[in-house]
Amino acid sequence: MSAQIVMLGPPGSGKGTQAGLLATHLGVPAISTGDIFRSNVSNETELGTLVRGYMDAGEYVPDSVTNALVRDRLGERDAVEGFILDGYPRTLEQVAALDAILEDQGRRLDAVVELVADHTEVVDRLLLRAQTQGRLDDTEAVIRRRLEVYAEQTAPLARVYGERGLLVDVDGTGDIDQVSRRIVSALA
């Protein structure tokens, strides 16, 4: 089944988990920009060397580099029949870049799934994850700031995709299987 889908949602909403489950269900790869960065760095590609320079300096990887990595990844054989994008696009500029990438490849998005979750629940989830995974830098203040950044930079994407008729809001609260069933049902 062909499916070109973007997953949106605040940190802690379960995007990565749900992207992986949906990808398995649809038989397409889940593509995370973080995974793309790590893969290119570990494989010492030209783009990976560039990414490592930014990461080692503690800087954000510029959109131009991120867009090139995504373009390259979407051109790989396993993504021909579709993909689930997790963590990209994050900004309106990246939306325009993704539009251009897909147009160049003769493809278009089928849907954008936004996981909607209460901020209190998200903060609790992330604090629990920080505790169980030893992420000492994930304090409540840091988590709340990440949610603010999401609201400022990424939430406007929902409006754009909503205007295009692509947005599917899904309640991201509850256990993993419940949320997964909601997503599959919403996309049917």
In short:
This protein is an alpha/beta fold and 188 residues long.
Summarize the helices and strands and which ones pair or pack.
Blueprint: E1 3-8, H1 15-26, E2 30-32, H2 33-42, H3 46-56, H4 63-74, E3 82-86, H5 92-104, E4 111-116, H6 119-133, H7 140-163, E5 167-171, H8 176-187
Parallel strand pairs: 1-3, 1-4, 2-3, 4-5
List key phrases describing it.
alpha/beta; single chain; 5 strands; 58% helix; 188 residues; Rossmann fold; five-stranded parallel sheet
Strand tally is 5
CATH top level assignment = Alpha Beta
- Can you write the helix and strand succession as a string? EHEHHHEHEHHEH
The stretches of 5 or more residues where confidence is low (pLDDT under 50) are none
Q: What proportion of the residues is helical, as a percent range?
A: 55-70%
Widest sheet: strand ordering: 2-3-1-4-5
* CATH topological fold name: Rossmann fold
Number of helices: 8
Query: N-to-C terminal Cα separation, in Å?
Result: 12 Å
What is the domain total for the residues?
A: 1
Tell me the structural class. Answer: alpha/beta
